[in-house]
Specification:
There is one protein chain. With about 110 residues, the protein is mainly alpha-helical. The protein is about 55% helix and about 0% strand. It is built from five helices and no strands. The two termini are about 30 Å apart.
Length: about 110
């Protein structure tokens, strides 16, 4: 079920849509995602690789991965946070907040 949770995190479908895709009800899909999401977060935290929210945490995780021998010094330079977050744009002067992406959901 981990692949379903990763699909949910990446694409963020409605639970009705997710349930239809995996052959469960909306409630069943919701319960499954929440149960496995908690397990995923606990597992990533126990391994010391839970995604960080600030620079100090990213440095700590990178040093942990380096110390365990999971990455090399060269690979350490490649760790990049590519999380995209929505922001509320102001009604005026929207140009500087415009990302250039087209909204496919109308």
């Amino acid at each position: 079920y981990l692949h379903v949770v990763l699909y949910y995190i990446r694409h963020y479908p409605t639970f009705a849509d997710l349930g239809w895709k995996i052959g469960k009800t909306k409630q069943g899909a919701c319960a499954m995602v929440h149960k496995w999401f908690i397990l995923l977060v606990k597992s990533l935290d126990k391994c010391g690789v839970l995604p960080a929210r600030n620079v100090k945490e990213i440095v700590r995780i990178a040093k942990n991965l380096l110390g365990l021998g999971l990455i090399t010094e060269e690979e350490l330079d490649l760790i990049v946070d590519v999380t995209e977050r929505r922001i509320n744009r102001p009604k005026e002067n929207q140009k500087k907040f415009y990302s250039g992406k087209k909204n496919t959901m109308q």
